[in-house]
Design a protein that fits this description.
By secondary structure, this protein is α+β, with helices and mostly antiparallel strands. The termini are far apart. Strand 2 and strand 3 form a beta hairpin. The chain folds into 2 domains: 50 residues, no CATH class; 93 residues, GMP Synthetase, Chain A, domain 3. The strands form 2 sheets. It has a 3-stranded antiparallel sheet with strand order 1-2-3. The protein has a 3-stranded mixed sheet with strand order 4-5-6, covered by helices on one side. It is built from 4 helices and 6 strands.
Length: 145
């Protein structure tokens, strides 16, 4: 019988949106707290600050890589390395997150490109974070290294 697992992140925000600032914390893993502000979200993150979009990108890249790894192993072609980046686009004028591009480079012995592309697409569509983000278009650019 499945057992639900809950992971927790938290945030504290001080002040108004544009001049305020906050901290987001990885509560479950206790790996740290990270400062954030409007500039990091609406202009460009500066070193030492993060944004919700960066955190979403990290979550999606991790989830996709894990899902892809499992599917490749089930295919009899376990990966040596899977490297994935998720570029999350935030557009204030269009109402927020307008798209996510997954970029993947993988080293896998004994797989044909057609099977690689098919499994990568299935992993993109099947990973739980992709499903949670179903309201946003997610594209995939995957290549064998």
């Amino acid at each position: 019988m499945p057992r639900p697992v809950t992971n927790t992140g938290s945030a504290v925000w001080n002040g108004d949106l544009k001049s305020g600032n906050g901290t987001t914390t990885l509560e479950t893993s206790q790996l740290g707290s990270f400062p954030t502000n409007w500039k990091a979200r609406s202009e460009e993150s500066e070193r030492g600050t993060t944004s919700p979009e960066e955190l979403i990108g990290a979550a999606l890249a991790t989830c996709f890589s894990m899902q892809f790894s499992n599917m490749l192993a089930e295919n009899g072609t376990p990966p040596t390395t899977i490297e994935t980046t998720a570029n999350v686009t935030f557009n204030i004028g269009e109402g927020g997150i307008t798209g996510i591009e997954l970029v993947n480079s993988s080293t896998i012995d004994g797989i044909e490109d057609g099977d690689f592309q098919r499994i990568a697409g299935e992993a993109k569509d099947g990973c739980p974070v992709s499903k949670a983000l179903s309201g946003v278009e997610i594209t995939l650019n995957a290549e064998l290294a």
